[in-house]
Amino acid sequence: MLYGRAGRLMSATRETANLDPAAFTRWCEDQVYTPAIRRGTEILERVCDLHLLELHRELGIALMLATPRTAREVADQLGFEPSAHIALEALLTRLAERTGVVSVEQSPPAHFQARAAVPDGTAELTALRSAMVELGPGFVVALECVEFGRAHFVTALRDDPGMMDRVLSGADAEHYPLWVQATNADPMQDLHGRMGARAIAELFPGGTILEIGGGTGNGIRHLFDVLQARGTLDRIERYIFTDVSPRFILGTRRAVREAYPSVTCDWKYLDINKSFSTQGIEPESIDLIYGVNAAHVAKDMVGMLRDCGAALRPGGRVVFAERVRGRSSEMAARELTLNLSRYHRTAAQRHPAHRVAHGYLSPRCWLSGLEQAGFRDAAIFPDLEAIQRVFPEQYAAVVTGVRGCGR
Q: Are 228 and 255 in contact (CB under 8 A)?
Protein backbone atom coordinates (compact mmCIF):
# COMPACT_ATOMS: atom_id res chain seq x y z
CA MET A 1 0.00 0.00 0.00
CA LEU A 2 1.29 3.46 -0.94
CA TYR A 3 0.36 6.00 1.68
CA GLY A 4 -0.64 9.52 0.73
CA ARG A 5 -1.83 12.49 2.71
CA ALA A 6 -3.62 11.57 5.94
CA GLY A 7 -2.57 7.96 5.34
CA ARG A 8 -5.12 7.36 2.56
CA LEU A 9 -4.41 4.99 -0.29
CA MET A 10 -3.37 6.92 -3.36
CA SER A 11 -2.68 6.08 -6.98
CA ALA A 12 0.60 6.87 -8.69
CA THR A 13 0.69 10.37 -10.14
CA ARG A 14 2.76 11.66 -13.02
CA GLU A 15 5.65 12.42 -10.64
CA THR A 16 5.66 8.91 -9.13
CA ALA A 17 4.96 7.07 -12.39
CA ASN A 18 8.55 5.88 -12.67
CA LEU A 19 8.52 4.31 -9.22
CA ASP A 20 6.33 1.24 -9.05
CA PRO A 21 5.22 0.97 -5.39
CA ALA A 22 4.61 -2.77 -5.57
CA ALA A 23 7.97 -3.41 -7.22
CA PHE A 24 9.75 -1.24 -4.65
CA THR A 25 8.06 -3.16 -1.84
CA ARG A 26 9.06 -6.51 -3.37
CA TRP A 27 12.63 -5.28 -3.73
CA CYS A 28 12.70 -4.29 -0.06
CA GLU A 29 11.30 -7.66 0.96
CA ASP A 30 13.74 -9.65 -1.17
CA GLN A 31 16.89 -7.54 -1.36
CA VAL A 32 16.88 -5.13 1.59
CA TYR A 33 15.20 -6.88 4.48
CA THR A 34 17.14 -10.10 4.00
CA PRO A 35 17.06 -12.96 6.53
CA ALA A 36 20.34 -11.65 7.96
CA ILE A 37 18.92 -8.13 8.39
CA ARG A 38 15.81 -9.50 10.06
CA ARG A 39 17.79 -11.72 12.40
CA GLY A 40 20.28 -8.94 13.12
CA THR A 41 17.46 -6.57 14.02
CA GLU A 42 15.95 -9.16 16.35
CA ILE A 43 19.32 -9.61 18.06
CA LEU A 44 19.93 -5.88 18.33
CA GLU A 45 16.53 -5.25 19.90
CA ARG A 46 17.13 -7.90 22.55
CA VAL A 47 20.67 -6.67 23.21
CA CYS A 48 19.32 -3.17 23.73
CA ASP A 49 16.77 -4.50 26.23
CA LEU A 50 19.50 -6.30 28.15
CA HIS A 51 21.70 -3.20 28.29
CA LEU A 52 18.78 -1.11 29.50
CA LEU A 53 18.06 -3.70 32.18
CA GLU A 54 21.67 -3.55 33.31
CA LEU A 55 21.55 0.25 33.48
CA HIS A 56 18.31 -0.02 35.45
CA ARG A 57 20.07 -2.31 37.93
CA GLU A 58 23.44 -0.53 38.06
CA LEU A 59 21.89 2.90 38.63
CA GLY A 60 19.64 1.62 41.41
CA ILE A 61 16.51 2.74 39.61
CA ALA A 62 14.47 -0.16 40.99
CA LEU A 63 14.90 1.19 44.52
CA MET A 64 13.86 4.66 43.38
CA LEU A 65 10.74 3.19 41.83
CA ALA A 66 9.55 1.42 44.95
CA THR A 67 6.83 4.06 44.77
CA PRO A 68 5.66 5.61 41.47
CA ARG A 69 7.95 8.32 40.14
CA THR A 70 8.35 10.33 36.97
CA ALA A 71 11.42 10.10 34.76
CA ARG A 72 12.28 13.65 35.74
CA GLU A 73 12.27 12.70 39.42
CA VAL A 74 14.54 9.74 38.70
CA ALA A 75 16.92 11.88 36.65
CA ASP A 76 17.07 14.51 39.39
CA GLN A 77 17.84 11.89 42.03
CA LEU A 78 20.65 10.54 39.87
CA GLY A 79 22.12 14.04 39.57
CA PHE A 80 21.70 14.08 35.79
CA GLU A 81 21.53 17.27 33.73
CA PRO A 82 18.09 18.90 33.25
CA SER A 83 17.10 17.36 29.91
CA ALA A 84 18.26 13.85 30.86
CA HIS A 85 14.73 12.93 31.91
CA ILE A 86 13.89 12.57 28.19
CA ALA A 87 16.43 9.74 27.86
CA LEU A 88 15.25 8.20 31.14
CA GLU A 89 11.61 8.27 30.06
CA ALA A 90 12.44 6.51 26.78
CA LEU A 91 14.46 3.90 28.69
CA LEU A 92 11.74 3.24 31.26
CA THR A 93 8.94 3.20 28.71
CA ARG A 94 10.78 0.62 26.64
CA LEU A 95 11.43 -1.52 29.71
CA ALA A 96 7.76 -1.33 30.65
CA GLU A 97 6.65 -2.33 27.15
CA ARG A 98 9.19 -5.09 26.54
CA THR A 99 10.41 -6.53 29.85
CA GLY A 100 7.88 -6.03 32.62
CA VAL A 101 10.44 -5.03 35.24
CA VAL A 102 8.62 -1.72 35.56
CA SER A 103 5.04 -0.62 34.96
CA VAL A 104 3.94 2.71 33.58
CA GLU A 105 0.91 4.87 34.18
CA GLN A 106 0.75 6.99 31.05
CA SER A 107 -1.48 9.81 32.32
CA PRO A 108 0.84 12.82 31.95
CA PRO A 109 3.35 12.98 33.29
CA ALA A 110 4.05 9.25 33.02
CA HIS A 111 4.77 7.54 36.35
CA PHE A 112 6.87 4.39 36.59
CA GLN A 113 7.01 1.75 39.33
CA ALA A 114 9.27 -1.26 39.84
CA ARG A 115 7.54 -4.61 39.30
CA ALA A 116 10.17 -7.35 39.08
CA ALA A 117 13.82 -8.04 39.73
CA VAL A 118 16.30 -7.61 36.88
CA PRO A 119 17.67 -10.95 35.66
CA ASP A 120 21.37 -11.42 34.98
CA GLY A 121 21.80 -11.04 31.23
CA THR A 122 25.55 -11.60 30.97
CA ALA A 123 25.39 -15.07 29.44
CA GLU A 124 22.63 -14.07 27.01
CA LEU A 125 24.58 -11.00 25.87
CA THR A 126 27.61 -13.18 25.12
CA ALA A 127 25.52 -15.62 23.12
CA LEU A 128 23.80 -12.85 21.19
CA ARG A 129 27.10 -11.21 20.28
CA SER A 130 28.34 -14.52 18.88
CA ALA A 131 25.13 -14.91 16.89
CA MET A 132 25.52 -11.40 15.47
CA VAL A 133 29.12 -12.02 14.41
CA GLU A 134 27.97 -15.10 12.50
CA LEU A 135 25.63 -12.98 10.35
CA GLY A 136 28.56 -11.46 8.50
CA PRO A 137 30.89 -8.45 8.31
CA GLY A 138 29.62 -5.25 9.84
CA PHE A 139 26.72 -6.58 11.89
CA VAL A 140 28.67 -6.39 15.13
CA VAL A 141 29.08 -2.63 14.55
CA ALA A 142 25.43 -2.20 15.56
CA LEU A 143 26.22 -3.83 18.90
CA GLU A 144 29.27 -1.63 19.39
CA CYS A 145 27.14 1.47 18.91
CA VAL A 146 24.68 0.36 21.60
CA GLU A 147 27.49 -0.76 23.89
CA PHE A 148 29.04 2.68 23.55
CA GLY A 149 25.81 4.23 24.76
CA ARG A 150 25.62 2.01 27.78
CA ALA A 151 29.27 2.59 28.69
CA HIS A 152 28.93 6.39 28.47
CA PHE A 153 25.40 6.76 29.82
CA VAL A 154 26.32 8.44 33.10
CA THR A 155 29.18 10.45 31.62
CA ALA A 156 27.00 11.98 28.91
CA LEU A 157 23.98 12.64 31.13
CA ARG A 158 25.83 13.92 34.19
CA ASP A 159 29.56 14.50 33.93
CA ASP A 160 30.00 15.80 30.37
CA PRO A 161 26.63 16.67 28.80
CA GLY A 162 28.23 17.95 25.58
CA MET A 163 30.12 14.74 24.92
CA MET A 164 27.66 13.01 22.60
CA ASP A 165 27.01 16.18 20.62
CA ARG A 166 30.73 16.26 19.85
CA VAL A 167 30.68 12.61 18.79
CA LEU A 168 27.69 13.01 16.48
CA SER A 169 29.14 16.12 14.85
CA GLY A 170 32.59 14.66 14.23
CA ALA A 171 34.20 17.09 16.68
CA ASP A 172 35.44 14.26 18.90
CA ALA A 173 38.50 12.95 17.08
CA GLU A 174 38.84 9.93 19.38
CA HIS A 175 35.40 8.58 18.55
CA TYR A 176 35.16 9.79 14.94
CA PRO A 177 35.89 6.28 13.53
CA LEU A 178 33.11 4.82 15.68
CA TRP A 179 30.50 7.09 14.13
CA VAL A 180 31.80 6.54 10.59
CA GLN A 181 31.47 2.79 11.14
CA ALA A 182 28.03 3.15 12.74
CA THR A 183 26.68 5.10 9.75
CA ASN A 184 28.32 3.13 6.94
CA ALA A 185 29.56 -0.32 7.98
CA ASP A 186 26.47 -1.55 9.86
CA PRO A 187 24.26 -3.27 7.24
CA MET A 188 21.13 -2.52 9.26
CA GLN A 189 21.90 1.20 9.10
CA ASP A 190 23.47 1.18 5.65
CA LEU A 191 20.24 0.03 4.05
CA HIS A 192 18.73 3.52 4.45
CA GLY A 193 21.16 4.79 1.82
CA ARG A 194 20.38 1.84 -0.44
CA MET A 195 16.66 2.54 -0.27
CA GLY A 196 17.07 6.26 -0.89
CA ALA A 197 19.35 5.65 -3.87
CA ARG A 198 16.92 3.19 -5.45
CA ALA A 199 14.04 5.64 -5.09
CA ILE A 200 15.99 8.55 -6.58
CA ALA A 201 17.25 6.43 -9.46
CA GLU A 202 13.61 5.86 -10.45
CA LEU A 203 12.21 9.30 -9.60
CA PHE A 204 14.94 11.72 -10.70
CA PRO A 205 15.02 12.63 -14.41
CA GLY A 206 18.07 14.86 -14.05
CA GLY A 207 19.37 18.19 -12.80
CA THR A 208 20.76 19.49 -9.52
CA ILE A 209 20.61 17.57 -6.25
CA LEU A 210 21.06 19.14 -2.82
CA GLU A 211 21.88 16.68 -0.05
CA ILE A 212 21.20 17.93 3.48
CA GLY A 213 22.94 16.45 6.51
CA GLY A 214 25.16 14.33 4.28
CA GLY A 215 27.38 13.35 7.21
CA THR A 216 29.82 10.54 6.54
CA GLY A 217 28.59 9.92 2.99
CA ASN A 218 26.05 7.11 3.17
CA GLY A 219 23.63 8.91 0.86
CA ILE A 220 25.97 10.18 -1.85
CA ARG A 221 27.96 6.93 -1.93
CA HIS A 222 24.95 4.72 -2.55
CA LEU A 223 23.34 7.10 -5.01
CA PHE A 224 26.42 7.43 -7.21
CA ASP A 225 26.97 3.66 -7.10
CA VAL A 226 23.40 2.94 -8.21
CA LEU A 227 23.33 5.56 -10.96
CA GLN A 228 26.67 4.40 -12.31
CA ALA A 229 25.51 0.78 -12.34
CA ARG A 230 22.44 1.86 -14.33
CA GLY A 231 24.49 4.01 -16.70
CA THR A 232 22.62 7.15 -15.65
CA LEU A 233 25.22 8.97 -13.55
CA ASP A 234 25.19 11.78 -16.12
CA ARG A 235 21.71 12.75 -14.93
CA ILE A 236 23.47 14.65 -12.16
CA GLU A 237 24.34 18.05 -13.55
CA ARG A 238 25.47 19.30 -10.15
CA TYR A 239 25.53 17.71 -6.70
CA ILE A 240 25.63 19.95 -3.62
CA PHE A 241 26.72 18.01 -0.55
CA THR A 242 26.10 19.78 2.76
CA ASP A 243 26.51 19.18 6.46
CA VAL A 244 27.26 21.12 9.64
CA SER A 245 30.44 19.14 10.36
CA PRO A 246 33.61 20.28 8.55
CA ARG A 247 35.22 16.94 9.38
CA PHE A 248 32.37 15.02 7.75
CA ILE A 249 32.38 17.27 4.69
CA LEU A 250 36.13 16.94 4.16
CA GLY A 251 36.13 13.18 4.72
CA THR A 252 33.26 12.55 2.32
CA ARG A 253 34.69 14.93 -0.28
CA ARG A 254 37.98 13.07 -0.27
CA ALA A 255 36.30 9.67 -0.77
CA VAL A 256 33.87 10.85 -3.49
CA ARG A 257 36.49 12.76 -5.47
CA GLU A 258 38.59 9.62 -5.59
CA ALA A 259 35.73 7.35 -6.65
CA TYR A 260 33.80 9.77 -8.91
CA PRO A 261 36.12 12.49 -10.18
CA SER A 262 33.90 13.28 -13.19
CA VAL A 263 30.80 14.34 -11.19
CA THR A 264 30.46 18.07 -10.52
CA CYS A 265 30.13 18.41 -6.75
CA ASP A 266 30.01 21.37 -4.42
CA TRP A 267 30.82 20.95 -0.74
CA LYS A 268 29.09 23.37 1.58
CA TYR A 269 28.26 24.04 5.20
CA LEU A 270 24.47 24.13 5.60
CA ASP A 271 22.50 24.31 8.83
CA ILE A 272 18.98 23.03 8.19
CA ASN A 273 17.76 25.08 11.16
CA LYS A 274 18.56 28.31 9.32
CA SER A 275 17.20 29.81 6.13
CA PHE A 276 18.61 28.01 3.10
CA SER A 277 18.58 31.22 1.03
CA THR A 278 20.89 33.01 3.49
CA GLN A 279 23.37 30.13 3.20
CA GLY A 280 23.88 30.27 -0.55
CA ILE A 281 21.00 28.06 -1.74
CA GLU A 282 19.13 30.20 -4.24
CA PRO A 283 15.33 29.95 -4.57
CA GLU A 284 14.12 27.60 -7.30
CA SER A 285 17.64 26.37 -8.02
CA ILE A 286 17.35 22.71 -7.00
CA ASP A 287 15.61 19.78 -8.68
CA LEU A 288 15.76 17.28 -5.81
CA ILE A 289 16.60 17.53 -2.10
CA TYR A 290 17.93 14.37 -0.51
CA GLY A 291 18.67 13.29 3.02
CA VAL A 292 19.53 10.03 4.77
CA ASN A 293 18.43 10.03 8.41
CA ALA A 294 19.03 13.76 8.51
CA ALA A 295 15.80 15.69 7.99
CA HIS A 296 14.21 14.40 11.20
CA VAL A 297 16.72 16.31 13.34
CA ALA A 298 15.37 19.71 12.25
CA LYS A 299 14.16 21.87 15.14
CA ASP A 300 11.21 23.25 13.19
CA MET A 301 10.20 20.44 10.87
CA VAL A 302 7.61 22.37 8.88
CA GLY A 303 9.86 25.42 8.64
CA MET A 304 12.70 23.28 7.28
CA LEU A 305 10.37 21.66 4.75
CA ARG A 306 9.16 25.08 3.63
CA ASP A 307 12.79 26.07 3.05
CA CYS A 308 13.14 22.93 0.94
CA GLY A 309 10.06 23.91 -1.06
CA ALA A 310 11.42 27.41 -1.67
CA ALA A 311 14.74 26.00 -2.93
CA LEU A 312 13.08 23.57 -5.35
CA ARG A 313 12.19 24.32 -8.93
CA PRO A 314 8.57 23.71 -9.98
CA GLY A 315 8.01 19.96 -10.01
CA GLY A 316 11.03 19.37 -7.77
CA ARG A 317 10.78 16.96 -4.90
CA VAL A 318 12.24 15.90 -1.58
CA VAL A 319 13.41 12.33 -0.97
CA PHE A 320 14.27 11.41 2.61
CA ALA A 321 15.46 7.93 3.54
CA GLU A 322 14.50 7.71 7.19
CA ARG A 323 14.02 5.46 10.14
CA VAL A 324 10.33 5.70 11.06
CA ARG A 325 8.62 5.01 14.37
CA GLY A 326 5.79 2.52 14.50
CA ARG A 327 4.52 4.27 17.65
CA SER A 328 5.33 7.68 19.08
CA SER A 329 6.63 6.05 22.29
CA GLU A 330 8.80 3.52 20.47
CA MET A 331 12.50 3.79 21.37
CA ALA A 332 14.86 2.56 18.67
CA ALA A 333 17.84 0.52 19.86
CA ARG A 334 20.23 3.14 18.47
CA GLU A 335 18.58 5.72 20.70
CA LEU A 336 20.31 4.23 23.70
CA THR A 337 23.25 6.14 22.26
CA LEU A 338 21.51 8.94 20.35
CA ASN A 339 19.50 9.99 23.40
CA LEU A 340 22.77 10.86 25.11
CA SER A 341 23.01 13.85 22.77
CA ARG A 342 21.61 16.97 24.37
CA TYR A 343 20.71 18.32 20.93
CA HIS A 344 18.94 15.09 19.98
CA ARG A 345 16.87 15.23 23.17
CA THR A 346 15.88 18.87 23.17
CA ALA A 347 16.08 20.52 19.74
CA ALA A 348 12.77 19.38 18.28
CA GLN A 349 9.79 21.69 18.53
CA ARG A 350 6.90 19.39 19.47
CA HIS A 351 3.59 19.43 17.62
CA PRO A 352 0.65 17.03 18.02
CA ALA A 353 0.32 16.48 14.27
CA HIS A 354 3.88 16.33 12.94
CA ARG A 355 6.23 16.10 15.94
CA VAL A 356 4.91 14.19 18.91
CA ALA A 357 8.36 13.10 20.11
CA HIS A 358 11.99 14.02 19.66
CA GLY A 359 14.07 12.30 17.00
CA TYR A 360 12.53 9.90 14.53
CA LEU A 361 9.05 10.59 13.13
CA SER A 362 6.13 8.27 12.49
CA PRO A 363 4.81 7.90 8.91
CA ARG A 364 1.75 9.99 9.72
CA CYS A 365 3.90 12.76 11.20
CA TRP A 366 5.94 12.86 8.01
CA LEU A 367 2.85 13.12 5.83
CA SER A 368 1.34 15.78 8.06
CA GLY A 369 4.54 17.84 8.04
CA LEU A 370 4.84 17.70 4.26
CA GLU A 371 1.21 18.72 3.83
CA GLN A 372 1.58 21.65 6.23
CA ALA A 373 4.71 22.77 4.38
CA GLY A 374 2.82 22.93 1.10
CA PHE A 375 4.03 19.73 -0.57
CA ARG A 376 1.70 17.61 -2.65
CA ASP A 377 1.63 13.91 -3.49
CA ALA A 378 3.36 13.08 -0.22
CA ALA A 379 4.06 9.36 -0.11
CA ILE A 380 6.00 6.75 1.81
CA PHE A 381 7.67 3.71 0.27
CA PRO A 382 7.63 0.73 0.66
CA ASP A 383 4.20 -0.55 1.65
CA LEU A 384 4.81 -0.57 5.39
CA GLU A 385 1.81 -2.76 6.17
CA ALA A 386 2.93 -5.40 3.71
CA ILE A 387 6.51 -5.33 5.01
CA GLN A 388 5.31 -5.59 8.59
CA ARG A 389 3.57 -8.87 7.83
CA VAL A 390 6.91 -10.48 6.96
CA PHE A 391 9.16 -8.31 9.16
CA PRO A 392 7.35 -6.89 12.21
CA GLU A 393 10.45 -4.98 13.33
CA GLN A 394 10.77 -3.11 10.00
CA TYR A 395 12.00 0.43 10.54
CA ALA A 396 13.12 2.11 7.30
CA ALA A 397 11.21 4.02 4.65
CA VAL A 398 11.59 6.58 1.88
CA VAL A 399 9.52 9.72 2.35
CA THR A 400 8.85 11.90 -0.66
CA GLY A 401 6.76 14.87 -1.76
CA VAL A 402 6.53 17.27 -4.69
CA ARG A 403 6.80 21.03 -4.41
CA GLY A 404 3.33 22.51 -4.35
CA CYS A 405 2.03 24.65 -7.20
CA GLY A 406 1.43 27.61 -4.91
CA ARG A 407 5.11 28.39 -4.50
A: no
